[in-house]
Amino acid sequence: MFEGFVAAGRVDEAFVAKLLLASRGGKVVPSTSDDDIQNHVDFWWTPNGSTELLGVDVKGLKKIRRNDFRINDVDTWIETMNVLGKPGWVYGKATYIAFRRIGKVLFVKRQVLANYIEGKIAGKPLVGRNPMCCYVPYRRASSFPPRLDIITLVPLDDIEAIAEFVIPHR
Questions:
Q1: Chain centroid to CA 105: how far?
Q2: Phi, psi at residue 109, to the nearest 5°?
Q3: Measured between alpha carbons, how far is 39 from 89 in angstroms, rounded to an integer?
Q4: Which residues of 137-150 are buried (b: 16+ CB within 10 A; e: fewer)?
Q5: Collapsed DSSP state (helix, strand, coil) of residue 98
Q6: Residue 157: how many other CB atoms lie within 10 Å
Q7: Which residues in the chain show pLDDT less than 50?
Q8: Domain assignments of the chain as residue spans, ordered by start
Q9: Are strands 75-81 and 96-101 parallel, antiparallel or unpaired?
Q10: Which of 34, 96, 149, 167 has an alpha carbon within 20 to 30 A of 87's alpha carbon?
């Protein structure tokens, strides 16, 4: 199963699924392509002693700006609206969003994160240039056709503060 993730270029998903199983047990099943694209679920986890399928959407370490040389373990972008103008991944069907960090993975209830972000950006104007600061809703400028996404930069430490659980790793 993990080889399928890796073969598809989903290394972060494989890493997080293995870590979750080793730490919390249960069973993991990869999502379908449709679940991944439409519902923002990378894999399904059934914890030990449960029959409930919990969707997990994995967010790997990324650069903040395209021209950055290194990945960023301080802040991350949260997508509230996608490039098509539809609800972003924070409004998907995953139970948990798993944020990979250096030395740990944060498991945050998706709905808790959505509510948190909504509260932080409420009443703030949408900007069209990278605000370079947190909790400002931002729509990236583009040529034709226009991008409709809205993203917000959020400190990973703030996300860790609302995490349901954290799994350390080497």
A1: 11
A2: -60, 130
A3: 8
A4: bbbeeeeeeeeebb
A5: strand
A6: 11
A7: none
A8: 2-168
A9: unpaired
A10: 167
In this predicted structure, what is the pLDDT of residue 63? 84
CA nearest 107: which of 165, 159, 61, 156? 165
Q: 127 has which bridge partners?
A: 138
Residues in the chain: 170
CA angle 139, 142, 148 (to 5 degrees): 45
CA 60, 66, 72, 78 torsion-angle sign = negative
Residue with structure tokens 């199963």? 1
In contact, 93 and 56? CB cutoff 8 Å: no
Burial of 66 (0-12, 13-18, 19+ CB in 10 A): exposed
**pLDDT confidence of residue 136:** 97
- Residue reference for tokens 């809703």: 137
Copy the structure tokens of residue 56: 């997990």
Q: Provide φ and ψ at 119, rounded to 5°.
A: -65, -35
- Amino acid identity, position 61: L
Nearest to 108, CA basis, from 46, 159, 41:
159
